[in-house]
Amino acid sequence: MSDANFELKIASKGAYEAGKPAEAQIVLDAKPPFHVNDKYPYKFKLKEAKGLTFPAPLVGKDAVKLENTRATMTVAFTPQSAGKHELGGQFSFSVCTDDKCLIEKRDLSLLVDAK
Fold first, then answer.
1. Domain for residue 115, yes or no?
2. CA torsion sign, 39 to 70 to 103 to 12?
3. Which domain holds residue 26?
4. Cα separation of 76 and 63, whole Å?
5. Does the residue 68 lie in any domain?
6. What is the mean pLDDT of each run of 10 residues along the chain (115 residues)?
7. What is the pTM of this model?
8. Nearest partner of 109 among 30, 29, 52, judged by Cα
9. Coil vs helix vs strand at 32
10. Which of 5, 15, 73, 94 is most exposed, with the fewest beta carbons within 10 Å of its own?
11. Cα–Cα nearest to 48, from 38, 58, 61
12. Residue among 45, 46, 105 nearest 78 (CA)
């Protein structure tokens, strides 16, 4: 997902197997002159997904690695069965310049194909 002020994506981390803990990664890249807001409580509110279980319905700031222009969030889940499942939810984040901060929410989804 591309915006004038940032790039945002959710991507697979490795192969997925039914019954085994797995991870996906959300990556936010701020575009100049913006940087990620290190004071913002980043979160990813997960949608219920048939065939997937989550340690918690909300992934919080403790799962985010912040750099100057990049925020990377790890989303843990477990595919319960083989096949395709949709991992989705709403990501809340903020990017700033020296003068202003933008507070954003975006829906993200990833098709998980478990073996």
1. no
2. negative
3. 6-107
4. 9
5. yes
6. 91 92 97 96 94 94 95 96 95 96 96 93
7. 0.93
8. 52
9. coil
10. 15
11. 58
12. 46
